[in-house]
C-alpha cells in the first residue's frame, strides 16, 4: 500500500487518520486523547457528554424541572459541563500530540449555546469542531470567534455549495476540511436526501470528485482536505484515493472500528455484540425523532419499532371514499372511519393484545400493547428537549416550545435510549448505532479470538493497510 503522508489539520501536521465522533458518551476524552497521542485526530462527542464530580464519580443526568423548558435548561448545563470535562481529559492524555476535535450535531438542542459554552470553558484544549446532522451555517462564525477550525459534515457537493455561499466564504481561513460522509454506509444519522434511494448505494468516488470540483472551481479550496467518512475499514481498499491529484488532500475517518478498542467507553457487552455481527445486521431506518435516516444494529429495539409501524392503518374523521367502516378509538370511544379490510386487521390486532390505539401526525393509527402505550406517553411527558425539534415528543426549542404538530408514537425518545445503552450492558433493547461495515469485526483476522486492541495498536494496524 502507498505510504500515508502527514496532512495539515487544525494547524498541525498529523496522520490523516481521524476518530469519528460518536454520540452520547461513545467517543469521549479517553478514546480521543489516546487517538491524538498516537499522532492522529481524536474526536470526543459534545452531545450530552458525561461529567464527573470531584471524586471522579459519574454525575447521573437526572432531571428535576417540572416543565420541558426547565429540563431543557438542565440538559444544556449538563452538556456544557460534560463537554469541558471531556476536552480536559483528552488534552491531558494527548500529551501535546495530534489534534483534539469535538463533534456536535447541529440538530441537537441548543447546539450554538452548548458549543460556545464548551469552547469558552475549554479554551486552547479543542482544536477543531466537526458538525453534521443538519445545515450548520453558524458553525463557521462560532469557531472563528474562538480561533478553532470547523469541519462540516456533508453527503453531497450540493450541500457544501449551499453552506459556502451562504456563510462559509466569510470564514474560509478556519475551514479545516470538509468531511464527506457516505449516506448509505455511515453509522448513526445519515445524510440521505429525498432524491436518493436508500436501497441503492452509490460509489463515493464520483461524489467526492464532484465535491472537490466544487471546492476547487467555485470556492478556491484546492488544498483544503476532504475527509472520507463512512464505510472505511481497510485503507488498502482506498489506495487509489491516496495521493490522487484529482481528489487532492485526503484523510480518512473511522467511526466503527474505534468502538472496539481498550479505551472505548462502551460496555463489554456492546463490544462482544460487535464481534458477533453478520453482514446485513445493521439496518438503515427512518425511526429517529430527528426525521433523518439512521443506521443501527437490527436488534429487538428496532424490531419493535418496525412492528409498531406495520400495525398501522389510515383513518378519516368522516366517511370518505372507501373509509366507511366505523372504529372506536381511545377511552372515550371516539368514532373514526377506516376501510373494511383495515377494520378486519384492526380487530385481529386488538384480539392479539395490541389494545391501545394511538394516532400519528399522518392521519394513521398504530396498535400497541397497554404497556408500550404507557411507556410512549411517559417518555413524551418526560421530554427534556434534547433536539432542536423532536418528531416523537413535538418539542421545539422555539418560543412556543413545540413544533405545532402531533407527537409521533412511531418514533422514540433518543436521549433515553442512548443514555441507557451508553451506561449499561443492555444492547438488545436499546438503540445501538453502528456503521454498515461492523460485520467485518467477525471476519477481520485482527480481532481473532475476541482480541480487542488499544487505540495505538489499531492505528499501527491501519497504517499497514489492514
Describe the secondary structure blueprint for this structure.
Elements (H helix, E strand, L loop, with lengths): L6 E3 L2 E3 L2 E3 L9 H9 L3 E5 L22 H27 L4 E7 L5 H11 L6 E5 L6 H8 L2 E6 L2 H10 L11 E4 L6 E3 L13 H15 L7 E4 L20 E5 L13 H7 L7 E4 L7 E5 L2 H11 L1 E3 L10 E5 L4 E5 L1 H12 L4 E4 L4 E5 L1 H12 L32 H9 L32 H9 L3
Parallel strand pairs: 3-11, 4-5, 5-6, 6-7, 7-8, 8-10, 10-11
Antiparallel strand pairs: 1-2, 9-13, 12-13, 14-18, 15-16, 17-18
Helix pairs in contact: 1-2, 2-3, 3-4, 5-6
Describe the protein.
By secondary structure, the protein is an alpha/beta fold. It has two domains: about 5-285 and about 440-465, TIM Barrel, CATH 3.20.20; about 300-420, no CATH class. The protein contains twelve helices and 18 strands. It has helices spanning about 30-35, 70-95, 110-120, 140-145, 155-165, 205-220, 270-275, 300-310, 340-350, 370-380, 415-420, 455-465; strands spanning about 5-10, 10-15, 15-20, 40-45, 100-105, 130, 150-155, 180, 190, 225-230, 250-255, 280-285, 295, 310-315, 325-330, 335-340, 355-360, 365-370. The chain has an eight-stranded parallel β-sheet with strand order 3-11-10-8-7-6-5-4. A three-stranded antiparallel β-sheet has the order 9-13-12, with no helix packed on it. It has a three-stranded antiparallel β-sheet with strand order 14-18-17. It starts with 6 loop residues before the first strand and ends with a helix. The mean pLDDT is about 95.
Structure in a nutshell:
Helices cover 30% and strands 17% of the residues. It has 466 residues and is of the alpha/beta class. The chain folds into two domains: 302 residues, TIM Barrel; 123 residues, no CATH class.
